[in-house]
Amino acid sequence: MTRNILFRNNVKVFGKGTQPLMFAHGFGCDQNMWRLVTPAFEQDYRIILFDYVGSGKSDLQAYSAERYGDLNGYARDVLDICAELELTRVVFVGHSVSGVVGMLASIREPERFDRLILIGPSPCYINDPPAYVGGFERADIEGLLDVMEKNYIGWANFLAPVVMKNQERPELTRELEESFCSTDPRIARRFAEATFFSDNRSDVPRVTIPSLIMQCSEDAIAPLGVGDYLQCHLPQSTLRVMKATGHCPHMSHPDETIQIIKEYLTAARAG
Amino acid sequence: MSRMDDLLNTAPCGFLSFADDGKIIMVNATLLHSLGYEPGELQGHHLETILPTASRIFYQTHFFPLLKLHGRVEEVYLSLRTKNGTDVPVLVNAVCRAREGVVVNDCVLVQMRQRNQYEDEILRAKRAAEEATLAKDEFLAVVSHELRTPLTAILGWARMLKTGTLDESVAARALDTIERNAESQSQLIEDLLDFSRIISGQIRLDVGRVELAPVAEAALDVVRPAADAKGIRLQAVLDPRAGPVSGDPERLQQVLWNLLSNAIKFTPKGGRVQIRLARVNSSVEVTVSDTGQGIGAEFLPYVFERFRQADHTTTRRHGGLGLGMAITKHLVELHGGTIRAESPGEGRGTTFILRLPVMIVHNAEHLSAVVTEQHPLAGEVRAQPAEWARLDGVHVLIVDDERDARDLLITILAQSGAGVTAVATVADALEELRIKKPDLLMSDIEMPDEDGYSLIRRVRALEDRQSRSIPAIALTAHARASDRLRALSAGYQLHMPKPVEPAELVMAIANLTNRGQGP
A186-198 pLDDT, tens per residue? Predict the structure, then answer.
C-alpha cells in the first residue's frame, strides 16, 4: 500500500528539516511548478511534492471519474499521502484550486495540519449576484472547456489512454513531459469542471487551522474581491496582497513568493 | 527602421513579445492590423487585453505554467479579442528567453479561421459518434434482452414437451405459449430489419390508391386478440367516405397496427382504445387514443426518437425495442404525412394524430393516367399500356363492390384488349358466370353481403364443369401471408394484393388463360 500511494501520486520527499512542507499544484499543472520555490525551504523543512491522480506523472490507472468529480476526491489524495508518510504539523501550500483542497483536507483531519498557505485561492469561481463576485459566468467556463478540448485534440492520447512510463518510446515520454501536465483530455475536463463549477463557500468558516491568503494584485482567475471575501470568512486568516500580477506568482515572481511564505512562517513560529 | 524590423513587421504572421508579468513589450504590424489596433496602442498593456475570458483562464492555467516549465510552448490554440470585440482563433508558438538581462516571452501567432471551423466539425462529429455509440450499446443491450425473453419461454416449454410428461391440456398451453413467443420474436426481428432499412434509406413504398378504412379494419383484426386478452375495449369510428390516400397499403397497415398495439400495450386492463378515421380538409386524419398511462410533457418531444422510451422502468415493464414509433413516424413521412402525439399528462391517456394527404380522384376516362402515373416516392419505372401483354379475345368477369375499383379494372383490361363484365355482388357474379361463360374470374375478397371466399367456394362447387374450373384471381387489401394462404385454399389460383400493378395484373391474366407470350 505504501508504495502504491507514493507511486500513485508520484510523491517526492526531500529536504533537511523535520516539519513537513507540502506543496500542492493547481489545475492544469503538476509538482514541477514549484521548482523555483522549493530550494529556498530545503534547509529547514521536509518537503513533500506530489501530483494529483490524473495530473503529471501520477498513476492514471488509479483515476476514477467518480472520486475526482468533486474536490473532496483531491482532498483525499492529500490525506492519503499524509497518512502514508505519517505526517503531522504539516504546512500545506496550495496553489489556486489546491487552496480549497487544503481547506477541505484540514476540515477532515485538522490534527495533521499546522498552517495553510493559499496562493490565489477561490472558494467559488462563478458569480453569485448580488453579493458574491467570483469572476466568471458559467458560459466562460464552458468556453474554457472548448479551448481545452481544442488544445488536447492533437495529443497522442486523444483516442486512447497512454501509459506514462513508456520505455520503448522515449520520444513519446519526452513529448508528454513537455505537454500539458494533465495529459488525458477527459481527466483534464473533469478536473476543470470540479474546479470551476464547485462552490465551497460554506466550507470556508469550518476551517480551524490558521492560514495565509496570498493574493496577486492583478489575477484574472481570483480577483481581489475574492481575497477579501476569504479573509472575512476564513477564521484565523491573514491576507497578503502581492506585488506580483497574474495567477502563478510562484512561477512569475518566485522571490516575492518565497519571502512572503518565510515571513509568515517565521511569525507563526514566534507566535 | 532596420531591415530586420521591417521583415518582422510585415511577416505573414503575428508576432508578440511579453514580460512575465503579462505586459506586452512589442507587437508586429500584421498582428496589430488583424486585431484592429493602431501602432503603439497595445504596448505596455496587459496580455489579457487581447484575450477573451476562456482563453485568459487557459493562458493562466496551462499556457503560462508550461512556458515557464519548459521554456517554450508549441501549437497552443487560443482566441484573441479584436478591438471591436470579435474573436479570432489563432495557433501560438512561444519561447521564453533572456534579452539584455530581462526575461522575454516571444510568440508567433497564426490565424486559423478555416482550420478552426474544420476542427469544430471534427469535434462535433466525434461527440456525435460517441453519443451514437453509447445509444447503440444501450440499444444492443435492450435488443439482447428482448430477444432472450421470448426465447426463454420457447426453450423452457420445448424442453418440458420433450420430456413427454405433460398432460394434454398443459401441452396445448405449452404449444400456444411457444407460438405466441415465436411470433413476438418474429415481430421484433421485423422491427429490427425495418429499422435497418430506415437507417440505410432502403425502405421502398409500393404506392397506389389506398382506402384507409379497410386498412384500419385489417389492423384492428390483428390487434383484437391482444386487446381481448387485457379486457380492453376497441372502438372504431371509420368514415368510409374519408377518401383515398396515395400509399403502400402494407406499410400503412403497419403504421396503424403500430399505433394500435402501442396503445393497447400502454393501456391497463379494462381500458379503452379508440381509432377514428375522418376527412379533415385535404387530409385523411386517423386518431388513435387510449385511456392509458399517458406521456409526461417532458418526454412528448422524444416519443418518435429511436431507442427512446419514457424511461427504462417502463421499458422493462412493457418490453419492446423503442423502435415502433420511430419506424411509424418515418413511414408516415415517406407517405408525405405527419404524425404527432398529445397527452394531457401522465395517467391521462395519449392520442396519436396521423394525417395523410388525400389522393386526388380522377374521372374514369383518366384512370389509365392515374394508374400509370409514377408516384414520386416509388422507385420503379412502371410499364406503359403499349408494353402490356395482349388479352384480345379473353373475357374477364370482375367482382368488386366498389365502383371506383371496378372502373379501374375495366379500364386496365380494356386497354389490353380484353372483354370485361363487371359486377358488384356474389349473386350477380354467379349469374354472369352462368350466362356469359367468361375465361377468368377476378374478385375482391371483402364485400358486404357475401365475400370473395364464399364466391369461390360456390364456384368450385358448380355443376357445370367449365364454370367450375374457371381460373380465378383474388384481389385484396389483405397482404399478409396468412391472407394469401386463405385465398388460395378457398380456391383461387392467384392472390394479388391491392393496389395492383396494371402490367402485372394483365400478365397474370394472360398466364392463367394461357395467353402468356412465349419467348
Answer: 888 899 999 999 9
Chain A contact probe: residue of B20, B24, B49, B57 with most A CBs at under 10 A: B57
Going by C-beta distance under 8 Å and a sequence separation of 6 or more, which residues neighbour residue A10? A31, A50, A51, A56, A57, A58, A59
Distances (CA, A) of B90 to B11, B14, B15, B283: 16, 9, 12, 55
Nearest to B51 by CA among A31, A238, A188, A221: A221
Q: Which of A29, A40, A63, A97 is nearest to A265 (CA)?
A: A40
Query: Which of B21, B56, B65 faces A33 most closely, judged by CB atoms?
Result: B65
Residues of A annotated as catalytic are 96, 219, 247
Per-residue pLDDT at B259: 92
Residue B224, judged by CB atoms within 10 A of its CB (0-12, 13-18, 19+), counts as middle
Write the pLDDT tens digit of every residue in B175-188.
888 888 888 888 78
Task: Give the separation between CA A20 and CA A16, rounded to whole angstroms.
Answer: 10
C-alpha cell at B430: 354467379
Phi-psi region of A236 (alpha: psi -120 to 50; beta: other; left: phi over 0): left
- Cα separation, B144 vs A132, in Å, equals 52
| Contact (CB<8Å) B55/A147 | yes
Mean pLDDT estimate for chain A: 88
Q: How far apart are CA B152 and CA B256, in angstroms?
A: 30
pLDDT higher than threshold 60 for residue A220: yes
DSSP B60: I
Q: Would you list the DSSP string of B288-350?
A: EEESS----TTTGGGTTSTT--S-HHHHHHH---S-HHHHHHHHHHHTT-EEEEE-SSTTS--
SS3 content of chain B, % helix, strand, coil (to 5): 45, 20, 30
| Residue A211 confidence (pLDDT) above 90 | yes
Mean pLDDT of chain B: 83
Burial grade of B318 (CB within 10 A; 0-12, 13-18, 19 or more): middle
- Cβ <8 Å between B54 and A252: no
C-alpha dihedral, A76 to A81 to A84 to A89, nearest 10°: -100
CB contact under 8 A, A144 and B69: no
pTM: 0.57
Contact residues, B window 60-119, toward A, CB-based 8 Å cutoff: 60-62, 64-66, 68-70, 75-79, 116, 119
Whether B489 contacts B456, CB under 8 Å: no
Contact between A245 and B55 using a beta-carbon 8 Å cutoff: no
Quote the strand ranges of B190-271, DSSP E: 208-211, 233-238, 244-247
Give the list of residues 6+ apart from residue A149 with CB closer than 8 angstroms, or none. Answer: A185, A189, B123
- Joined together, the cell numbers standing for residue B201 give 434509406
Confidence of residue B194 (pLDDT cuts 50, 70, 90): confident
- CA torsion sign for B134, B136, B142, B145 is negative
At CA A243, angle to CA A242 and CA A245, rounded to 5?
90
The predicted complex's ipTM stands at 0.86
Say whether pLDDT at B408 is over 80.
no
Which has the closest alpha carbon to B72: B107, B46, B45, B32? B107
Collapsing DSSP to helix, strand or coil, B421 comes out as strand
Distance in angstroms (rounded) separating the CA atoms of residues B53 and B45: 16
H or E element, residue A143: helix A138-152
- Whether the CB-CB separation of B380 and B212 falls below 8 Å is answered with no
- Of all residues in chain B, the one with the smallest CA distance to A188 is B62
Are B218 and B477 in contact, with CB atoms under 8 Å apart?
Answer: yes
